[in-house]
Structure formats: structure tokens, C-alpha cells
TrEMBL record:
Keywords: Hydrolase, Signal. The keyword Protease does not apply. Pfam families: Glyco_hydro_44. The lineage of its organism: Bacteria, Bacillati, Bacillota, Clostridia, Eubacteriales. Residues 742-821 form the Dockerin domain. This is Glycoside hydrolase family 44. GO terms for molecular function: hydrolase activity. One of its GO terms (biological process) is polysaccharide catabolic process. It comes from the Bacteria. Residues 1-19 form the signal peptide.
Length: 822
């Protein structure tokens, strides 16, 4: 599964296959009408396994740490392979036009990305931080946009990576030598943040990212496939450097992208090198080889060089739809299970996958931990994503996985982590010690149970109901214990809402059997206590259920202003809960994947009366796509940038009774400088959902089929300061600055009289494809000579660059007060 990165936006992940609407899903005919009885057995005297708290991790660039309770975060992905720590430049590779730019950071402070990681982790109480080291050979030398085929490495567009400088580490890296030293990077991190034992330091270092895909994703930096020899030698050298500088830091490798890489490293048709190495050493698959290389090098070095064998796992069968997704995790742990994919057809010799990997570890490098630093089972917009996620986490606990970090931020999947780590919103979590638990039929219901070490007073039982239509009557039998359990609480995710709900409090537990009714298509955490009053005072969802009112707008054309932005009226900002955006995303070039990066733009007012501008991002993927943007009464106010960036969370609402849907960027399979690919969004409907607590009278009429035909206008606000006069709207800005020459209107690259997002886009297009968008025409699709003068807002004397587009974007986001930025 590819990760899609784009200029002026955070890295995002394309979702798995679009699933069918719930109404199209057949009921499980094996289940009787009204559900069935499922017996769940929990053995409190059975084998106990310590659960690593690091399995509940996430990836920094896909999941907002404030949305999930976790103790581990990874900084990785395709962008990190060509990340230049000295300047913070990075390259997107084939994910987005092979662009070298400021995507990861706009700061010039060395190692800004890892500093931001440290600060973000500290702010959200995340203790374990894993970052990525660059091994592929080159990193971005500049931030000037697309790297052409003719500029592939070695060229001036790239700086050479040298793993070992050895000594004389500079306090400030030399930006003129054309070389980036990786041991100097680790040393810089330690000097800046402390070593791995410090709270702010980095605990783990990953030996790059998905090396088998270097020649695919980063073909202009590493055009040839990685070899077994190259990957082994680079991994060993870099691991030695890490251990020399920070002996307690953990080394992760080799971050392989998926099953075929586990098996034979390279995914091409010819595997000559692998077949020779395999035959000479009697290896079962490539993971044996890598472990053997690292073990022998460790023995020679006198220290462990690989702490965590790191792989990525994106389920093949989960992409086929909901019913396959609900069974997909079984490929990782269940002997004999045959999933509906090419793995189930051709690769059963290595199923179940995790025990096969563990067998390789035990044979070739005992004591090495197992990590899964990227994984995703899809289903981010329905409960199948939650069910697969909670089964995966239970599987990781049972199989002894040390570290796991979700790639993605889709709400139903993230909610699956929170069901383990924060089921009650107050830090309630799954126990730290796994105990045996089983259901009668894992195809219908999966379960995992835990207690806290040396404390059986509370038992947490994760259980799923995979039936798409019917509720499940579950009896949880707590066996082999002297404890008398007396009460239980049931927290669940089900239906079309990813929120965790307390759906039942059981106060009559008898004979250590808990009777639970699980909603159809649900995942639940059942918390059982030996105290009768453990859950007194709690109110269930039914007792606190709120009333929702939905307004649906389908006449999108009448809601679209002259900038092409959709203006959505907000009738009651105080009770605004979420908006659901539905659209069809198309690719003019016929790309296999495409992503439209969008934002809900908001003029906000805080509870203290402060007016500010903010936004909430969302993305829509190729085809019919849906995105949900939530409003919880808290809006972000951003100031500063890079490591100095401050995000202040304010209690606030929409200020002027409307929001705007704006498309900021796009990325696609064929969207390079040589190919024009217009990623267009045809909005079908926008649903605005308001939520009212019990006793509140809704001020919005409960009409779920409203169609608006009201003409849309955009109001303006005028703010005057001693330095400038600015007239602006969310969508467009007219700038007049007292120091501006009479013939220059900074920012207005297309010379249409206004400064808006189209100017930043035109600058990027002209840089990426000067023959098409450069000084060749006089209309608004080309940069003219006058437009070039207007566009040079960064004004560094080197002409129009990507920094000019960034400055315009920052101005529109109100991150800087004015243009130009001298």
C-alpha cells in the first residue's frame, strides 16, 4: 500500500478498497434471526504473557497524537528516505512528482523534524519515539520542486549520504560540502535532545524505510534495486554507529514493506542473487538471511546491533471489502486459515505469518524483538476497521510483538486503539498481562482477555461481534479463579459512529459468568470487577443519549463561490458536531490512485471573544469518497513554524455562520511534471450534523433532506494597521503594502488582481513545467514577466522558487501577517 505525500500538506495515506454501503451487505445466514449465543471462556490460571505497551503505537505523519492515547510514535514513511537532516529538505519520490521541498518542515534549523517529534511526544505524554535514519545513498539537496529524470543522482539536486564521519562532529553541519553524515546526525540529536534514556531523547532508530521500494518510489535517487549485500552492509555500519554513540538506543531494521520482501527481498521477476544466497545457506526466506547477517556482525562487534526486526504489514484480503476484512487478521496467527488473496492461494507455507517470523528470529538471532512499524487493515469509515484493529492488537499481544505503529488516522481504526488504551475517556485500559481466552467460532467473534500483573481484581475482555446485521448474546465465563466477580461495564463501538459508548452496566454477575448483549457489527471492551460498586454512578449511552439533527445539502453548484470553493451554512455553531463530505474524485490522466487534499476553512471566535482563522484538513481519494470532519468545541490557533511552531487549543466556534471547503493540493500516480493530471472533486452532498444533550431544545429543524438553493456570497473583513491595509476573505486576499513598488502586487502571480491559492499553484506549476506554464503566454495559466515580479514575494534575489509559493500559502493561512516577507 502506497503512502501519498504532497507539497503543503502532511503525509496522508490512501485508504483500502472502497467498501460497499451497509445496505448492500448480506446478513450472515449461519446466524439465527435475533442473534445467537456465543460462549467465551477466560482461563485465569492459564499461561500469562506480558503485553508490551508499545504495540499501541501510531505513525507521526498520519495520526494526530491528541486523537489517540498511546505510548509510542514512529517518524517514518517514504518522505524520510530522502530527508536531509541538515536543511530539512525532503523528496516525495513517485508519491508526488519527485518533488524536493519543505513538506516535512519549513524550518532551517538542523534536525527540526526530530525536534518537533520530541516536542509533540512530550506534549501528549508519549514516552517512546522512533525516528528514521537515511541509508539509500542520497538526500534532497534543495527545496526547489520536481527532480527530473535528467537530474537523478548523482547531480546537484542531491547530497551524498555518508554513514560514518567517525569524529570531529560539527556543532552546526556544513551546508557547502555536498555530503550528509549520518553518525553526525545521531550525535546532533543526542546533543540537542539527550540520549535514549532522557525524556526528550530518541529511544529507537530505524534503518531507513522500505528499502525494496527505493528503486520504485525513489527511482531518481536509487534507480537500481537494492541488493542483499548493500542492505546488509549499510544496516551493519549504521547500527554500529548508533550503538557507539547511544548504546542504550534500540536499532530497528530493515522495515520491509510486505510479504514478498519478507520472502525474497526484491519484488521483481528475477531473484538471481536471492536464489544463490538461499541455496548456499539453506535459508527458508529472506528474513533468515537478514537476521543471520546482523547476528554474525553483532558477534564480531561484541554488541547487539539489531534490537527489533521490523516489518510492515498491509493485509491483502482486507482490501477486498468488509467481509474479508473481518477475517483478515487470522492470517497472522491462525494455522490453516486461508485468506481470500494471492497469499491464501500461493503462500500458505508461511501462514500464520507472525509465528513463522518468530521461528526465524529464534533460529538465527534469538532475543531479537519483533516490530511492525507500519500496518493497516482498512475500513477507516465503518466498524469493520475497528473490529480488525482490535483483533490485530490482541493478536500482537498474544504473539509477543514488541512494537507496532498504525499507519493512518481514520476514525474507526484509531478508535480501536483507544478502546484498548482509554475506553472510558479517563485512562481506563486493557490489562498489562494477557490470559487465555477463546470463543467458539473466531469467524463470528474474536476475544482477548487481560489482567494487571499480580492483580486479578479486574479482568478486561475484548470481544467482537462480526455479524453485520444481528446482535450477539455473549456469556463470558471466568474460569479457574478463587475471585468472586460481581459487576461489569461494557464499552463498545458499533453502528455508524466511532465514538466509544458505555452501553451496559451489569450489577448481577453470578457464578463468575457475565451476560452481555453485543450490538451487531461491534467491538467491545468488557471490564469485570470483583467489587459490586465498581461502576456505581456511571450512566450508559442510552441514559445520556443526545439528539442529533442533520441537514443535508445537495445543490452544491449554488453553494460554490467564484473561487470554486463550497460555502456551507452553519445554523448553530455552538452545537455543531461534524460534517460529512461526499464527493467523486476523478483523474484526468487515468491514474490508479489519486488524492485530493482539502480543508474546512473557518473564521472562528473563542469563548473569550478572540477572532482568528483556522482550518481542519481532510482528504478524498479517487472514486466515490467520504470524509468526516469533527467539531468538539476546540479549534487550533497556530503561530510560529518548525520547532518553534505553537498550536494553541482554544474553546471556540465558527464565527460567521459558514465554513468553506477548499481544495489545497492533489497527488496522483501520474501527476508529474511531464504529465498533466487534474484531480477534480465533484461534491455530491454535504451533511451538517448538530448534537444536543438531553433536555436541550434543538434550534435547527430536524430535516435530514434539506436542499439549499440560496445564493452564496462571501463577506469581507477589513483590518487596518500602521504598516498596511488588508482586505480579505477566507478564499481570496487583496494586499496593499506601503513599501510595495507601484508596478508590483506581491503574491498575484496570475495577475488577476487578487492573491489566493491559485497563485501558489501557478508558481508550483511553472517551476515543475516551465514549457507549459512559464513565460510563454499572456493568460492566467502562465507566469508572465509581470507575474514573475509579483510572485517573487520571498525576495531573496534568486528569482521565483517554491519558497514564494510557501509564503503565499502561509499568508493565506494567516501564519504570517503580510506580503512580501523581506
Amino acid at each position: 500500500m502506497k503512502k501519498k505525500a504532497a507539497f503543503l500538506a502532511a503525509v496522508v495515506m490512501t485508504g483500502c478498497a472502497v467498501t460497499a454501503p451497509m445496505s448492500d451487505i448480506p446478513a450472515n445466514t449461519a446466524n439465527a434471526a435475533g442473534g445467537y449465543d456465543m460462549n467465551i471462556t477466560v482461563d485465569l490460571k492459564g499461561e500469562r504473557k506480558e503485553i508490551s505497551p508499545l504495540i499501541y503505537g501510531v505513525n507521526q505523519y498520519t495520526t494526530n497524537l491528541k486523537d489517540v492515547k498511546t505510548n509510542a510514535v514512529r517518524q517514518g514513511g517514504n518522505r524520510m528516505t530522502a530527508y536531509n537532516w541538515e536543511t530539512n529538505a525532503s523528496n516525495a519520490g513517485s508519491d508526488w512528482k519527485h518533488s524536493s521541498d519543505t513538506n516535512l518542515s519549513e524550518s532551517n534549523d538542523p534536525a527540526d523534524c526530530v525536534q518537533v517529534l520530541s516536542k509533540d511526544a512530550a506534549k501528549n505524554n508519549v514516552g517512546y519515539k522512533l525516528t528514521t535514519l537515511q541509508l539509500a545513498g542520497y538526500v534532497s539537496a534543495d527545496k526547489d520542486g520536481t527532480v527530473t529524470e535528467e537530474e537523478k543522482a548523482p547531480s546537484k539536486r542531491w547530497n551524498k549520504v555518508v554513514l560514518t564521519k567517525g569524529s570531529d562532529f560539527a556543532d552546526t553541519p556544513d551546508l557547502t560540502d555536498g555530503v550528509v553524515y549520518m553518525d553526525e546526525y545521531v550525535n546532533y540529536i543526542i546533543k540537542k535532545l539527550g540520549n535514549s534514556k532522557s525524556e526528550t531523547g530518541i529511544q529507537g532508530y530505524s534503518l531507513d524505510n522500505e528499502p525494496v521500494l527505493w528503486n520504485d518510489t525513489h527511482s531518481r535517487m536509487h534507480p537500481e534495486p537494492v541488493t542483499i549485500k548493500e542492505l546488509g552492509e549499510k544496516s551493519i555500519e549504521m547500527a554500529k554507529n548508533v550503538k557507539k554513540l547511544d548504546p542504550d538506543a534500540e536499532v530497528f531494521g530493515p522495515a520491509l514493506y510486505g510479504y514478498t520482501a519478507f520472502d525474497h527481498l526484491d519484488d521483481d521477476d528475477e531473484h538471481t542473487e536471492w536464489e544463490e544466497v538461499k541455496a548456499a545457506n539453506n535459508y527458508h526466506w529472506y528474513l533468515d538471511c537478514y537476521l543471520d547477517q546482523m547476528k554474525k556482525a553483532s558477534d564480531e562487534a561484541g554488541t547487539r546491533l539489531l534490537d527489533v526486526l521490523d516489518v510492515h504489514y498491509y493485509s491483502e484480503s482486507a482490501r477486498k471489502g468488509i467481509e474479508d476484512r473481518l477475517q483478515s487478521v487470522r492470517t497472522l496467527y491462525e494455522k490453516g486459515f486461508k485468506e481470500n488473496s494471492w497469499i491464501g492461494q500461493w503462500c500458505m507455507e508461511n501462514v500464520p505469518i507472525l509465528p513463522t517470523i518468530q521461528a526465524s528470529i529464534d533460529k538465527y538471532y534469538p532475543g531479537t524483538k519483533l516490530g511492525i512499524s507500519e500496518y493497516n487493515f482498512g475500513g477507516g469509515n465503518d466498524a469493520s476497521g475497528t473490529i480488525a484493529q482490535v483483533e490485530a492488537l490482541g493478536c500482537y499481544a498474544d504473539q509477543g510483538v514488541y512494537f507496532a505503529s498504525l499507519w493512518g488516522g481514520d476514525p474507526f481504526i484509531v478508535a480501536g486503539i483507544n478502546l484498548y488504551t482509554n475506553y472510558d475517556g479517563k485512562g481506563g485500559c486493557f490489562g498489562d498481562t494477557l490470559i487465555p481466552a477463546k470463543t467458539e467460532d473466531v469467524s463470528k467473534s474474536s476475544t482477548y482477555a487481560a489482567v494487571n500483573a499480580k492483580d486479578d481484581s479486574k479482568v478486561t475482555v475484548m470481544v467482537t461481534n462480526k455479524d453485520l446485521k444481528e446482535a450477539e448474546n455473549a456469556v463470558i465465563d471466568l474460569k479457574n479463579t478463587d475471585n468472586k466477580y460481581k459487576s461489569a461495564a461494557v464499552y463498545a463501538i458499533y453502528g455508524d459512529d466511532e465514538q466509544i459508548k458505555l452501553i451496559d452496566v451489569v450489577k448481577d454477575v453470578k457464578d463468575n459468568k457475565v451476560n452481555v448483549e453485543l450490538p451487531a457489527f461491534s467491538a467491545a471492551m468488557v471490564v469485570v470487577s470483583d467489587k459490586a460498586d465498581a461502576f456505581d454512578g456511571l450512566k450508559t449511552y442510552a441514559e445520556t443519549k443526545t439528539e442529533t439533527v442533520t441537514k443535508e445539502y445537495t445543490d452544491i453548484k449554488s453553494m460554490t463561490n467564484d473561487k470554486g470553493f463550497v460555502v456551507v451554512p452553519i445554523e448553530d455553531a455552538k452545537h455543531l458536531s461534524k460534517i460529512i463530505i461526499n464527493g467523486n474524485v476523478t483523474s484526468s490522466a487515468g491514474s490508479g490512485w489519486g488524492t485530493a487534499g482539502c480543508a474546512v476553512c473557518i473564521n472562528a471566535v473563542s469563548d473569550a471573544g478572540e477572532n482568528f482563522w483556522t482550518y481542519k484538513s481532510y482528504s478524498l481519494n479517487l472514486g466515490n469518497s467520504t470524509a468526516t470532519v469533527k467539531f468538539d468545541g476546540i479549534l487550533n490557533k497556530e503561530t510560529g513554524e518548525g520547532a518553534d511552531k505553537v498550536v494553541e487549543e482554544l474553546k471556540a466556534t465558527v464565527a460567521d455562520g459558514k465554513i468553506e471547503l477548499q481544495k489545497w493540493w492533489d497527488a496522483s500516480e501520474k501527476g508529474e511534471a511531464s504529465v498533466e493530471d487534474v484531480i477534480a472533486v465533484d461534491y455530491k452532498s454535504v451533511q451538517v450534523v448538530y448534537e444536543y444533550a438531553q433536555g436541550e431544545t434543538p434550534t435547527v429543524k430536524p430535516d435530514t433532506t434539506t436542499t439549499t438553493t440560496t445564493a452564496v456570497t462571501t463577506t469581507s473583513k477589513t483590518t487596518t494597521t500602521s504598516a498596511e491595509t488588508t482586505t480579505s476573505t477566507v478564499a481570496s486576499t487583496t494586499v496593499t503594502t506601503s513599501s510595495t513598488p507601484a508596478d508590483v502586487k506581491y503574491g498575484d502571480a496570475n495577475c488577476d488582481g487578487e492573491v489566493d491559492l491559485s497563485d501558489a499553484v501557478l508558481i508550483m506549476q511553472s517551476l515543475a513545467n516551465p514549457n507549459k506554464y512559464g513565460l510563454t503566454g499572456a493568460d492566467k495559466t502562465h507566469i508572465t514577466e509581470k507575474g514573475s515580479k509579483n510572485a517573487d514575494v520571498y525576495n531573496t534575489g534568486d528569482g521565483v522558487t517554491t519558497n514564494d509559493a510557501v509564503s503565499i500559502q502561509k499568508y493565506l493561512l494567516k501564519l504570517i501577517p503580510s506580503l512580501p516577507e523581506k
